[in-house]
Amino acid sequence: MSSKKKTKSTVQKPGGWTNYGAVPPATEDSIVEESINASAEHQEEKGSNWTAFVHIVCIIAGSGTLGIAYAIKQGGWVSIVSLIVAAIGAVYSNNKLIETLYYDSKTRKNSITQIAQDAFGNLGFITVGFFSSCITLGCPVLYLILSGDNLQILFQNLDVDLGMRNWVYICGGVMAIPFVLLKTMKEAAWLSVFGALTTFVVVIVVSFMSVADYSDHPNSGHDIINFRNIPLAMGTFSFSYGGNVVFPNVEAGMKNPSAWPRINFLAILFITLMYLLIGIPSYLTYGYATTSPIYLNLPSGWTVTASIFLITAHVLLALPIYLTSLALELEEYAGVNVSNLGKSREFIARILLRTSLMILTVWLAISVPYFADVMALMGAFGNGLLIIVVPILFWIKLYGWNRLNGPLEKTWVVFIMILATIGAVIGTWDASNSLWRRIIKG
Predict the structure, then answer these.
(1) What is the DSSP string of 120-138?
(2) Largest CB tally within 10 Å, which of 46, 59, 77, 174?
(3) Integer Cα distance of 139 and 62 in angstroms
């Protein structure tokens, strides 16, 4: 009996990584026994540490990879320090976010919106839920728009002109198949594997071509530091680690949740190395002429075509991951599960809900004017705060400021939250200006 009590007491330590997976997931009536049974039933649906790793890499390292070199150009070589700081901040805030899922040591919360409600009531639920939904639904819409534009460009070179709208329909129809049929994050793991692989290949191609092109740009010019644009670079680097609204579902899909901190660290490290691998040689070669996306600097030919194709493949493969996360949350709220409905009715309800989500995504991509610019604005503010500020605020509100580990961690928290807020404000300002210019031009 005494050993059991000691085990329970370790669950209550907010700083202990043993919290992860130590308590069952929350249910609507918060009955712990039912949660344990549900958890046991679905244990076979859990994925490995490798599955979680590729999910994180696929979610974070997407089309933003092609803007890293331009961000370094904006801030100069010293701005690489900002990239490292952003990576450290992402590791820290991701861990804090997942830890808040277990804060009451009784049930595991299922989403960032549940944590928001517990921390700040209905205001927190509505605010965070709004921006979280904008990201989990808005990113797939933007991915469809980007894919439609890219495929139109690629196939126009082959004298095939279907139009951007038709390419969006095609992409939406193709990606609806895995989204609708793959129930859990584990089943969608192969999408993340190929998505992460396409980004890695793009990084290798662009890096290799940048080095090969170095001799043709002997006087490209570089800045050690550009104080005026350091905040812009910092904002770009911060957004390059976005996607944490999906991480509660990623961690929930792990057979061994206690491994989350290690997997989170390794994934962010791998992503950061890719960013450095594509950013440093590209800026070194093209200097002041560096553009975003970086493949515009490459010599015309197969490298540009391959880069566009691979990035298009990546965003299409990442699209179902975001929508699956949103669908899992909606299904949780709607009670769409085998326990409530039985296998047949659960399957039908899930198919209808997910098909409706995909139809909405396609409709937004082709019908809403200035959607990309509006989402850029919402993402700059919402994602800018959700990446760093919101998880840390949740942790402090639920566990208490004094539970932070001494003056050093408290100083770090203040420092990183100030930087993240500055990045969010600057990103919001730039996105607002871009939207205004688009509206003025009609």
Answers:
(1) HHHHHHHHHHHHHHHHHHH
(2) 59
(3) 11
Measured N-to-C along each axis, helices 338-367 and 302-334 cross at an angle, to the nearest 10 degrees, of: 140
Token pair 């770090």 is found at 412
Evaluate whether 109 touches 100 at the Cβ level (below 8 Å).
yes
CA–CA dist 313, 307 (Å, integer): 10
pLDDT digits (tens, 9 = 90+) for 39-70: 444 555 567 888 899 999 988 887 678 889 98
Identify whether the C-beta of residue 387 lies closer than 8 Å to the C-beta of residue 241.
yes
E-strand spans in 145-300?
Answer: none
The more confident residue out of 332 and 284 is 284
Tell me how many degrees the CA angle 63-73-412 measures, rounded to the nearest 5. 80
Q: Quickly list H helices, 221-337.
A: 230-239, 247-252, 260-286, 302-334
What local confidence, expressed as pLDDT, does residue 436 receive?
76
Rg over CA atoms, the chain: 22
What is the mean pLDDT of the segment spanning 277-298?
90
Return the H-helix or E-strand segment holding 434.
helix 406-441
Name residue 400's amino acid. G
Q: Tell me the residue length of the chain.
A: 442
What is residue 243's three-state secondary structure? coil
Return d(Cα 287, Cα 124) in angstroms, integer: 44
Specify whether the CB–CB gap between 220 and 58 falls below 8 A: no
Of all residues in the chain, what percent carry a pLDDT higher than 90? 29
DSSP state at residue 342: H
C-alpha to C-alpha distance for 182 and 186, rounded to whole angstroms: 9
Element (H, E) at 71: helix 68-75
- The answer to whether residues 75 and 234 touch, using CB atoms and an 8 Å cutoff, is yes
Give yes or no for residue 38 having a pLDDT over 80. Answer: no
Q: Tally Cβ neighbours within 10 Å of residue 174.
A: 11
CA–CA dist 135, 115 (Å, integer): 17
Q: What is the pTM of this model?
A: 0.82
d(CA 214, CA 208): 10
Q: Is the pLDDT of residue 31 over 70?
A: no
* Predicted confidence (pLDDT) per residue in 77-113, tens digit: 999 998 999 899 999 999 999 999 998 877 888 888 8
CA angle 423, 424, 426 (to 5 degrees): 65
pLDDT band per the 50, 70, 90 thresholds, residue 420: confident
